[in-house]
Design goal:
six-stranded mixed beta sheet, alpha+beta
Length: 779
């Protein structure tokens, strides 16, 4: 009999891994121990080699449902003797090197117990077990043990302690275990911050009553506060819009059950996502016979839906029996509020009542958001947050062993870490143009660095020097005296998509189609309609949309009419469609600006979407980012739903390679169709098809078979469907699977681009040839 040490790495803490190992030890008759440490799970036992190999196979094949093993290794050690098998206290010494476990939605076992009148946790709003409940949002330090979380403030009662110590119980070593005798307490406040009630039963009844009366309630969840009201009460929804300064951006809805989703097209993929342990918001198409809920998603044919993912929401929704609006608890453009004191101070101006609880949230998170394309059911992650972040598990892509911090971008900010071979991409952290979002970014980053006791060896940032994330990176570089590298924005997008699909070693050329709203280019212009090639660790910008004037700064992305004016400048017949959109003063001043040939130019496909939306009369001023593009997509989708995806008429039929893609020719074609009285939905459909057709033409001209798409424009599910439909048979297509195509993936892309740089340097003693496009040493 030999003594073996087995080390398991991955997402193995907070998922019931030690109780799982304990049960296997009983099954195989092993003596020894298992423990969490700062670098994973360690198992020491006495066994012969055959038994230990069988044990390791079983660990891999039968691991807990929520775990993700990235490595399992065995070592023969000096013989030891044990009387039994135990779970021993975690060891907190050494450098942290493990994957962080996200927060999990309410599991079915706890959901059933919550409703059983004879169960001691009947109606307890914070019921959890080994398989569900908060993890990431409550962790103070590693490893994941109760005393290292905000659950430390709630000593277990004798009954909960007995469950916690019983190997046969589902709550064996469940770090969030509690009940109404020893657990978390609710408190309901009114808008004057006076306490209304601390009794759970009374609070739940009161909230139902207030929803029915049209009131707005702020409710503390896992990652922060949600603002809620009766979704069928148009007056309440409009009042919430008014108070939150959110005139038309769509609201997410919380439904009591999946069976209540009668007004939506619900397929198996969407249902599986809704009922998963992530329980994200899923965009669903309204059924053909359904009427949109008033004021929830103006001008759109999709609505964000989620199911109760906490026991508190489950209790409330079962009692209410119909959908509620459940939107982030904040004033528009600010990060989600997660601190109780701040919620009472700030959300009382929006909500009539605020429901708090006394378990602290350490790391705020919005709800994750996904959609499936209408025709091909391609999954698109729109926001990667609660239930998914912060660990990114991709065993195929290898990053340098250095400690690297990637600062991401600005509008859809995240940061990324490469640490001891593990990869972390933070949750969505908001728009860093706002001071509150900057503070939130710094808070989460600092918490991360403390968790891993980490100081980076290298810092990566977007090359735009004015991004707050870039400036934070510069400050950390000086503080730590470490090098900092700039990564061009769109090549970071390209890096993210080839990294996600492990295409770094590819010897075949890959065409990167990187389309978004804005990003600083190497020539100082605003890029966003780019084609790149990648081959043998080398990038090259091979094509882009013809530049048009970028005028009026931040006003241009907010007013699609300005994009229309710029892209249609000097186009025959354009004036008839444009002049009415401006006052006489604006028309005179803006035209003079264009005549002067503004030095700042753009190739942005995002702005082209805005321009088309304005020309078609969809909107001239938008109230939130992407509004015009989303409504243009909705209009085009209605056409394809009626006629199918077959289409042959393109605005790029006269495209000639090696000349820039003519933005003016595109807009001139749209103007001609308008002059000829073509239907708006047809023009919207033709525009979308033309973009897919353009990708095919560029790939054919370059004789490239592999096409990778990234950038915020590829959040457009219809465009993804059209690319799949018209190109899939002839090309190998790559879209994001676990990361969002928008700027959330920039931090990961920066890490990948750094790896490409290192690989390139390892093959050559010469300068990295694409250095001018990828990196510059800011020091």
């Amino acid at each position: 009999m030999m003594t073996w040490h087995i080390h398991v790495e991955g997402q193995v803490q907070g998922v019931g891994f030690r109780p799982f190992i304990f049960s296997l030890a009983q099954k195989y008759g092993l003596n020894g121990w298992v423990s969490n440490t700062v670098d994973g799970v360690h198992l020491v036992c006495n066994a012969n080699k055959r038994t230990v190999l069988k044990l390791m196979d079983t660990i891999v094949t039968d691991a807990p449902r929520l775990s993700k093993i990235t490595s399992i290794r065995r070592f023969k050690i000096q013989q030891q003797f044990f009387d039994n098998f135990q779970i021993i206290h975690s060891k907190e010494t050494g450098k942290a090197n493990l994957l962080l476990t996200p927060d999990f939605a309410l599991c079915n076992d706890c959901r059933q117990e919550l409703k059983q009148a004879n169960n001691r946790r009947y109606g307890y709003p914070f019921i959890t077990c080994t398989n569900c409940g908060p993890r990431y949002s409550i962790i103070r330090k590693l490893p994941y043990d109760r005393q290292n979380t905000t659950m430390e403030a709630f000593p277990m009662c004798p009954t909960c302690q007995e469950e916690y110590d019983d190997p046969s119980d589902r709550r064996y070593f469940s770090q969030t275990n509690s009940c109404s005798d020893c657990g978390i307490e609710l408190c309901l406040f009114d808008a004057s911050q006076a306490i209304v009630s601390k009794n759970t039963t009374d609070i739940l009844k009161r909230i139902i009553h207030e929803w029915k009366a049209g009131k707005i309630i702020a409710i503390k969840g896992i990652g922060g506060y949600l603002l809620t009201c009766d979704a069928s009460n148009e007056a309440a929804v409009l009042e919430l819009r008014k108070r939150k300064y959110r005139p038309s951006k769509p609201f997410a809805l919380l439904y009591p059950t999946a069976t209540a989703l009668k007004d939506f097209e619900l397929d198996d993929l969407a249902l599986q996502e809704l009922e998963s342990h992530v329980s994200p918001i899923v965009l669903l198409d309204l059924a053909a016979s359904a009427n949109a809920l008033p004021g929830v998603a103006p001008g759109l044919n999709r609505v964000g839906i989620m199911l109760p993912y906490t026991p508190l929401y489950e209790l409330l929704m079962q009692a209410f029996g119909k959908p509620i609006v459940a939107t982030s608890g904040n004033i528009s453009n600010s990060p989600i509020v997660y601190e109780d004191e701040k919620a009472l101070r700030e959300l009382s101006t929006v909500a009539d009542f605020v429901l708090t609880n006394n378990r602290d949230i350490l790391l705020p998170q919005d709800d994750s958001l996904v959609q499936f394309s209408f025709f091909h059911k391609q999954k698109i992650v729109l926001r990667r947050s609660r239930g998914i972040a912060p660990t990114y598990i991709n065993a195929d892509v290898k990053l340098p062993r250095e400690r690297i911090l990637a600062m991401g971008a600005m509008l859809k900010s995240t940061f990324g870490l490469s640490h001891s071979g593990n990869k972390y991409i933070s949750q969505y952290l908001g728009d860093l143009t706002h001071f509150d979002a900057q503070q939130n970014f710094e808070h989460v980053l600092q918490h991360f660095l403390e968790l891993f006791d980490m100081r980076a060896d290298v810092i990566l940032r977007d090359q735009h020097p004015s991004y707050p994330s870039s400036q934070m990176g510069e400050q950390l570089s000086k503080k730590w005296n470490v090098p900092i590298f700039d990564v061009q924005h769109h090549l970071a997008h390209f890096g993210a998509i080839i990294g996600e699909h492990n295409l770094l070693p590819s010897s075949e050329p890959i065409l990167g189609v990187i389309w978004d709203g804005t990003g600083l280019g190497e020539d100082g212009q605003i890029w966003g309609g780019e084609f790149f090639t990648y081959e043998k660790y080398q990038f090259s910008r091979c094509q882009h949309f013809e530049y048009f004037d970028f005028i009026l700064g931040d006003k241009m992305p907010k007013e699609p009419r300005i994009s229309a004016l710029s892209t249609c400048w000097d186009a025959a017949g354009a004036e008839a469609f444009l002049e009415e959109k401006f006052s006489q003063t604006e028309w005179r001043i803006y035209r003079k600006m264009l005549q002067k040939k503004n030095s700042l130019q753009s190739s942005s496909v995002g702005r082209i979407f805005d321009a088309v939306a304005s020309l078609l009369g969809i909107m001239d001023k938008q109230t939130y980012e992407g509004e015009a593009a989303m409504r243009l997509e909705a209009l085009a989708t209605t056409y394809f739903q009626k006629h199918g995806l077959d289409f042959s008429s393109s605005y790029f039929s006269n495209y000639v390679y090696r000349r820039r893609i003519s933005t003016k020719s595109l807009m001139a074609g749209i103007i001609r169709d308008l002059q000829q009285g073509k239907a708006r939905d047809f023009i919207a459909a033709k525009f979308h098809f033309s973009l897919a057709h353009l990708i095919k033409m560029v790939a054919n001209d370059l004789k490239i078979q592999h096409i990778a798409c990234s950038g915020g424009v590829f959040q457009n599910a219809l465009l993804v469907d059209l690319v799949l439909y018209h190109l899939k048979g002839d090309f190998e297509l790559y879209f994001h699977k676990e990361l969002s195509p928008n700027d959330e993936n920039i931090s990961f892309g920066q890490l990948v681009c750094y790896q490409i740089k290192k690989q390139r340097e390892s093959f050559s003693k010469h300068t990295f040839k694409s250095n001018k496009y990828v990196f510059s040493d800011s020091r």
